[in-house]
Amino acid sequence: MARSFAQLSFDERRIIARLHERQISQAEIARTIRRDRSTVCRELKRNFWHDQVVPAAEGYWHLTAHQMAAARRRSYRKLVRNPLLRGDVVDRLKNGWSPEQIAGRLKIDSGGTFRLSPETIYQFVYSREGKEQDLARFLPERRRKRRPRYGRKPRSLVFPIECAIRNRPEVINDRSQFGHWEADLMIFRKEHGSANVATVVERKSRFTLLFRNNDRRSRPIMNQLINHLGPLPAHARQSLTFDRGLEFVAWRELESGLGASAWFCDPQAPWQKGTVENTNRRLRRYLPPETILLETSHDDLKALCQRMNDTPRKCLGFQTPREIFIAETLAETTQSV
């Protein structure tokens, strides 16, 4: 089985398709065509036909797979064969252009005679040559490994339109009603681990809560939110506003755990939750990105939280967030007695 790598032939793909349809294991298919098991696994993942219009037509079809592989090699070779084009793409990546912007501008500059898809640029960025140049760090959203193209879940299903910030009631927008919060994560240098700090701010009083997370998994973060906000009376925890980060995909836990609703900023618009963004800027004076968070104790975070809540704010008439928060909490509680 040990041999120098060569692209799969049409006949090999036909055998793979036939055996895969019979539900033969990938290991057995690999032995049949005298290939490594990883080659078969990669082939089935990369050239599996996804049909969003007719789901029943999905599957691994050898003719389609062969055409997909050939098209991928042709588009990828545009950047491999053409050093001037490759240099232009790399320069624009380093200047902060996204693959979509590069492809769109290239079409204009060439008068429509030359086309390069954003997908081709992404493939080049995550190729061996792209990794050697560390091109992924110039992308708007960097990942160590690219997610499968058809394995990405549409965010619209995770964050439904009815929860979009444009549908948030005006009493929340104008801060006239108490008990509505904004939440975000403060991220630190990658080399210091994946620990982060959650910032939770009440919109009317600017009262701030801080707690540390060991990673960015959504469910533990939601559980921490429930634990910190749960002891408050119901009118003090009516809703939370988040951005569309994956750390907030388990937001439905809040409905059962707190009875609170959730609202979400538009894509790429974290400024729409300006209260918590402004709070994060203030906190960065004490928690800069190079902070080794695992060396920061819970008492340190508690002391920082107290400092934030006991500092007078001009927007509050120079009262402190703690004073406003207590007054609003007691006022509603007293009325209900």
UniProtKB/TrEMBL annotation:
Q: Name one GO molecular function term.
A: transposase activity
Q: Which GO terms describe its cellular component?
A: cytosol
InterPro entries in the record, alphabetically? Integrase_cat-core, IS30-like_HTH, RNaseH-like_sf, RNaseH_sf, Transposase-Integrase, Transposase_IS30-like
PROSITE patterns according to UniProt: INTEGRASE
Q: Which UniProt keywords apply?
A: DNA recombination
Set out the biological process GO terms recorded for this chain's protein. Answer: DNA integration; DNA recombination; transposition
Per UniProt, residues of the Integrase catalytic domain are 165-329
Name of this protein? IS30 family transposase
